[in-house]
Amino acid sequence: VVRQEKYRPSYHFSPKNGWMNDPNGMVYFEGRYHLFYQHHPFGTTWGPMHWGHAVSTDLVNWEEQPIALEPDGLGTIFSGSAVVDERDTSGFFEGKPGLVAIYTHHYSLPNTDQIRQYQSLAYSTDSGESWIKYAGNPVLEDEHCIDFRDPKVFWHEPTEQWVMVLACGQTVRIYHSPNLKEWVFASEFGHGIGSHDGVWECPDLFPLWVDGERSQVKWVMLVSIGDNPEIREGSRTQYFTGEFDGTTFVADVESEKVRWLDYGRDNYAGVCWSGIPAEDGRRLFMGWMSNWRYANQTPTERWRGAMSIPRELALETRKGTVALIQRPVRELDGLRTPVLSLTEPSSEEVQNALSALQLDCYELVAEFATAGDFGFKVRVSDEHEQETLVGYTSATQEVYVDRTRSGCSDFHEDFAGRHGASLGILPDRMDIRLYVDRSSIEVFFNRGQVVITDLIFPNREAKGLEICSAEEQVTLFSLELYALK
Ligand code: FRU
């Protein structure tokens, strides 16, 4: 068992047993966050999909629940969303609020290689404990669209109706409904814009204030793009900013060039929670920490797949354009045990302090001058045959994670490598916030402007941490380190 748990994350959600991919149906209701997920309980590779289920009161400590949705005569259960039907528009709840899940049924026609995908409903009258599939399923079909899946539904207050975004081939379709049961086509987005490197999946659409100004709202569309044998990066997620009037999404000019949510390889199919109370007001996101390129081959046993840490999304003006910013949720601070806190330390001081440590699960926050190259080596083994590099190159204003020698990587030829992004002209100082776990690293650069999420598979004993800044002129303003339980 110990050997099988070698890569088990300590503070990321992973299923006890079996396979997991996309987060599904993320909804907050009656004091609990629900996380459902694409799950194959009988194997550690992708198979007939179920919805697994976990609940949490703080987004950080999760308790796995019995499986919520199992395959039936209409098919297996693909990705989808869940909403709080506050006004019982569906009529499932005798006038009270209740939870409705909207998901894709995936059906393989017997004795052919043909498939059908259509949208269905399930509801819960006991706060998510048990689920009843709607007798009128499916509620939305289109025989002309083969890849027709991953409904994300939200209530659009100004037009007082439900809105669904749905992936259809390489576009996103928008539908309307008064009651979640009857859906009418409204518009289609995606022709001639964005990346079309693969089939479009798992869309989301939501408003955010720009720079925290309540008078300035923009809409964000997330679209994940499936694996394509010709694209080395594999599956990844793009985003658009724009305007939405309840019917049509119109992208900003900035969104005419492709914009990535994450510059690592392992943040896919992520969407946001629904049902977050207005007094909280946050837009909370979680992604699947893997990549279809190699997801079925990662070297875990008994279980496979983990979620990213929960993140808060924001829109901020950076370099004159409105950009999507990600920050770890504050609830994660509850896991902290302070290890180090240094102010304007010399390189030598940092080196000495770090060399005394052995850590595998931690958060590191550093602020440094952007005049010189700067970085850390994490999960370093005794002889340095394993190490993962995180850093910043001043000449190119590039940040990166290099997992070339991060540990086990021979399960797929595209796993090892260096993943970088250019930040453009920067202020004199910049921060790096780094979350390391047993099999992942998530790095937030320059207050969440660029994020790199990467899986790594180091040995359990590879627990060294080093600073790399050969040049004398590098200035570290502060460094904080917390062990995370
Ligand atoms: C995205 C995805 C979805 C689909 C699900 C199947 O990773 O391919 O489009 O609903 O996974 O498990």
Brief sketch in words of this structure:
Residues 331-482 form the Glycosyl hydrolase family 32 C-terminal domain. Belongs to the glycosyl hydrolase 32 family. This protein is mostly beta strands and 485 residues long.
Topology:
Elements (H helix, E strand, L loop, with lengths): L17 E12 L2 E9 L9 E7 L6 E7 L6 E10 L12 E11 L6 E10 L7 E2 L14 E9 L4 E8 L2 E7 L6 E6 L10 E11 L2 E13 L10 E9 L4 E3 L16 E5 L11 E5 L14 E2 L6 E8 L2 E8 L7 E8 L3 H9 L6 E8 L4 E7 L7 E6 L4 E5 L15 E5 L6 E9 L2 E6 L4 E6 L8 E5 L7 E9 L1
Parallel strand pairs: 1-19
Antiparallel strand pairs: 1-2, 2-3, 3-4, 5-6, 6-7, 7-8, 9-10, 10-11, 11-12, 13-14, 14-15, 15-16, 17-18, 18-20, 20-21, 22-32, 23-28, 23-32, 24-25, 24-31, 25-26, 26-27, 28-29, 29-30
Bound molecules: beta-D-fructofuranose (FRU).
The site of beta-D-fructofuranose has 12 residues, from strand 1, strand 5, strand 9 and strand 13.
In round numbers, the mean pLDDT is 96
Low-confidence stretches: none
Q: Helical content, roughly?
A: under 10%
User: Total domains, how many?
Assistant: 2
Reading side by side through the largest sheet, how are the strands ordered? 22-32-23-28-29-30
Given the structure, what is the number of helices? 1
Shape descriptor: globular
N-to-C terminal Cα separation, in Å?
20 Å
Structural class given helices, strands, pairing? mainly beta
Which cofactor or ligand species appear?
A: beta-D-fructofuranose
Percentage of β-strand residues: over 45%
CATH topology of the largest domain: Tachylectin-2, Chain A
Compute the CA-based radius of gyration.
Answer: 22 Å
Assigned CATH architecture of the largest domain: 5 Propeller
What is the CATH level 1 assignment of the largest domain?
Mainly Beta
Please give the number of β-strands.
32
The major pleated sheet works out as:
6 strands, antiparallel
Corresponding CATH superfamily of the largest domain: Glycosyl hydrolase domain, family 43
Oligomeric category: single chain
